[in-house]
Design a protein that fits this description.
About 35% of the residues lie in helices and about 20% in strands. The chain is α+β, with helices and mostly antiparallel strands. Strands 7, 8, 9, 10, 11, 12, 13 and 14 form an eight-stranded mixed beta sheet that branches. Strands 1, 2, 3, 4, 5 and 6 form a six-stranded mixed beta sheet that branches. A hairpin with a 5-residue loop joins strand 1 and strand 2 (about 50-55). The relative contact order is 0.12.
């Protein structure tokens, strides 16, 4: 992959609309007037999937929007850094040598949502644009928006529902950091339990209430297989809204845990040898008018659906840094855990990377490769790009795995075992550059290199224990 020095040309159909008169403005003004909201978080999803941006007076936000302001300036390094916000000089987007210029936050007013777990606060998700108003191609939300547009050129769209897992630990983050003690809030598995200890029931009820008040339709909230592990599922919706919803969920999960004196972690493998946490993506292909390509009464998947699933199996091995961005991400891919180790598909088979489901909402499939630490926008961008790859090249779907994929699929491509292995495949493949542009691919390769460098320089608790002889 080579680094280019200019932004790729943007298709006008995929560009971000400039805010004009909008019902959300009237709604926000009403919320401000009755005292429900006094603060607006203008939130840009960064490469790690965290919110970065501005905490604004709601009144000042409204005044600026109604004055026709193009957006809010923010230092562009938020899209060219690591989770610790370190500065680097080798990103093409911005660097120390180019002065760390500003980008602009352009609010997507359709995303206005009140956050009951934050006092008098609403959030509006922002898009990153340059001063001339063109979208910044490496911004995760824009990457997903572009893939949605490219799939639409085939006359197709997707409906997406996230199934998200996380783990909650006793004590505050400060106490855990000070003591190094990670104790889940339950000592044993409460998988699918309907009777919970009162404190856990209260946490789930607080989360359920908060999400309902934030107008998020939740399908299920339940305890999962691992001690202290929870899962939320959402009904299907359009991909951009699904990713926006996932970020709101992450904020709610953390805030409600903190209010209980606990700490919620979105880690792929939070406990050595313990249960792992994923973000499973349920999706279905639809015609652009919303009609599904296949229904539950179908006896065979249409060719385009077979091509799409084949694309997932063929392309996702080379795109792993987008859906498994950290060294810890790869500690999830272990046999007999429910996380995939081979790129195979099967009908209602949870040992596979792609599980085709033919019940409930009808025929859809579940992509099980992403961990709880993944950026929802990048996960969906990688999935849609892989689907498009399969459709473009009319890839043949291999035979399904009908047994235990951990034992019976030894000839199938292996899920990368480390971030180093994943980055090598990302570098060596032509797919990232072709599916996302060379500039975008190089940007995320650089980010993975810095993540690995920080990991290699970090002294771990294992090394300290060995030195102490414990």
């Amino acid at each position: 992959m080579t680094t280019t020095t200019t932004e790729p040309q943007q298709d006008p159909r995929h560009q971000i609309a400039i805010p004009g008169p909008h019902p959300a403005v009237e709604r926000l003004r009403h919320l401000v007037g009755n005292g429900s909201v006094d603060t607006v978080l203008l939130a840009l999803p960064d490469m790690a999937g965290a919110w970065r941006g501005k905490s604004l007076s709601a009144t000042a936000f409204l005044d600026r929007i109604e004055a026709g302001a193009p957006g809010w300036p923010l230092c562009s390094y938020v899209l060219a850094t690591d989770p610790d916000m370190n500065l680097y000089d080798d990103f093409a987007l911005t660097s120390l040598s180019t002065g760390l210029h500003d980008l602009m936050l352009r609010p997507d007013l359709d995303t206005l949502r009140v956050l009951p777990w934050r006092e008098s606060t609403a959030v509006i998700v922002a898009d990153a644009v340059n001063p001339s108003g063109h979208p910044i191609a490496v911004a995760p939300r824009q990457m997903l928006r572009d893939q949605i547009g490219l799939l639409a050129e085939h006359g197709l769209t997707t409906h997406v529902g996230f199934e998200a897992e996380w783990t909650v630990f006793q004590g505050t983050a400060d106490r855990i950091a000070r003591t190094g003690q990670f104790h889940p809030i339950s000592a044993r598995s409460l998988d699918l339990a309907l009777d919970h200890p009162p404190a856990i029931e209260a946490y789930m009820e607080e989360l359920r209430f908060g999400l309902r008040e934030a107008e998020l339709m939740v399908r299920t909230i339940q305890t999962e297989h691992g001690p202290g592990q929870f899962e939320v599922t959402f009904p299907p919706r359009d991909p951009l809204a699904a990713a926006d919803t996932h970020l709101v969920l992450q904020d709610a999960v953390r805030r409600c845990a903190t209010a209980a004196g606990w700490t919620a972690l979105w880690m792929a493998a939070p406990i050595t040898g313990g249960a792992t946490s994923g973000v499973h993506v349920h999706l279905s292909l639809h015609h652009i008018d919303g009609q599904p390509l296949v229904t539950s009464d179908g006896h065979r998947l249409p060719d385009v659906v077979e091509h799409a699933i084949a694309g997932l199996l063929d392309a996702l091995p080379d795109l792993a840094p987008l859906y498994a961005p950290y060294p810890n991400s790869y500690k999830r891919y272990r046999p007999d855990t429910g996380a995939p180790t081979r790129f195979v598909w099967g009908t209602d088979n949870r040992t596979c990377a792609v599980r085709v489901v033919n019940h409930g909402d009808g025929v859809h499939w579940e992509v099980r490769v992403a961990g709880a630490d993944a950026n929802a926008y990048l996960v969906l961008a990688a999935i849609l790009a892989a689907i498009r790859h399969g459709i473009d090249h009319k890839l043949d779907l291999p035979k399904p795995c009908v047994g235990n994929a951990y034992l019976d699929a030894a000839d199938a491509p292996q899920v990368p075992r480390t971030l180093t292995e994943a980055l090598t495949a990302f570098h060596d493949s032509t797919l990232p550059g072709r599916l996302f542009t060379e500039r975008v691919a190089q940007h995320y390769a650089t980010a993975a290199e810095h993540t690995l460098d920080a990991h290699h320089r970090t002294v771990t608790d294992i090394e300290l224990r060995h030195a102490l002889g414990t």
